[in-house]
Amino acid sequence: MIKETVFKSFDNKEALEAQLAERIANQLQDAVDARGKASLIVSGGSTPLKLFELLSKKAIDWSDVFITLADERWVSPEHGDSNERLVRNNLLKNRAASAKFRGLKNMYSSPEEGCAMAIEQLGSFPTPFDVVVLGMGNDGHTCSWFPCAADAELDNALTSAELCVAVTPGNAPHSRISLSKSAILASRQIYLHIVGEQKLEVYRQALASEDTREMPIRAVLEQHKTPVDVYWSA
Ligand SMILES: O=C(O)C(O)[C@@H](O)[C@H](O)[C@H](O)COP(=O)(O)O
């Protein structure tokens, strides 16, 4: 049984998005004020689109904010499944157009080959990362830590000291590059952003046991080093 951390519940997704966008913007600006620059790690998927839109309009010093992805599909940035595309279209606009975005996909033909370059690209990011926003799949994955990946790959994602790892999910499209567990936990604040009854049920299942290989989101929920606030709405 995992001890629950902060769980914020909202009646609707709009209320959640408004509050989470405000909180993230404040934390990023506080980081810029305190240390001169800030880092923001975001996830792809369908959940954060409106959050990105709201965030993009916040009046903060975006030119001092470094943004990257928690994970990426190994497809070109123009591909419909690209998380980079999603972030460019929904977050890197309005006031946030001046943020410093570094994607994880590069010219190499596979994530295995491209990992070293992706890590190099993140070299200018202030660490610990200031804010990380994660999503969660119905199979209990987060980032691209898929329970359906080969044992060795998932173990690598959960134990590697490297910033990025390669993962090929057994039953989801595209091979992926993902930040590792050690990279994600090297953060000042993690948010888990989930919407709907089904995700709530998956989250409850995740808290009910400790096998991270079965539900990799547990690797984030069971630790007490980095604060994790769960934002859920109906
Ligand atoms: O690129 C991705 O798909 C992710 O980063 C992934 O970890 C995502 O956050 C979850 O799969 C939830 O996705 P939804 O928001 O679409 O439910």
Broad CATH class: Alpha Beta
Q: Compute the average pLDDT.
A: 97
- CATH topology description: Rossmann fold
Number of domains: 1
Over the alpha carbons, how many angstroms does the gyration radius reach? 16 Å
Residue share in helix: 25-40%
Catalytic activity: 6-phospho-D-glucono-1,5-lactone + H2O = 6-phospho-D-gluconate + H(+)
Protein name: 6-phosphogluconolactonase
Family: Belongs to the glucosamine/galactosamine-6-phosphate isomerase family. 6-phosphogluconolactonase subfamily.
EC number: 3.1.1.31
Question: Could you write a compact summary of the structure shown?
Answer:
The chain is an alpha/beta fold. The chain has eight helices and ten strands. The chain has one domain (10-131, 147-233): Rossmann fold.
Overview of the molecule:
- There is one protein chain.
- This protein has 234 residues and is an alpha/beta fold.
- The chain has a single domain (10-131, 147-233), classed as Rossmann fold (3-Layer(aba) Sandwich), CATH 3.40.50.
- It contains 8 helices and 10 strands.
- The strands form 2 sheets. Strands 1-10-9-6-2-3-5 form a 7-stranded parallel β-sheet, with helices on both faces. Strands 4-8-7 form a 3-stranded antiparallel β-sheet, sandwiched between helices.
- Strand 2, helix 2 (49-56) and strand 3 (65-69) form a beta-alpha-beta unit.
- Helix 1 crosses helix 2.
- The protein starts with 5 loop residues before the first strand and ends with a strand.
- The mean pLDDT is 97.
- The site of 6-phosphogluconic acid (6PG) has 14 residues, from loops.
- The site of 6-phosphogluconic acid has 14 residues, from loops.
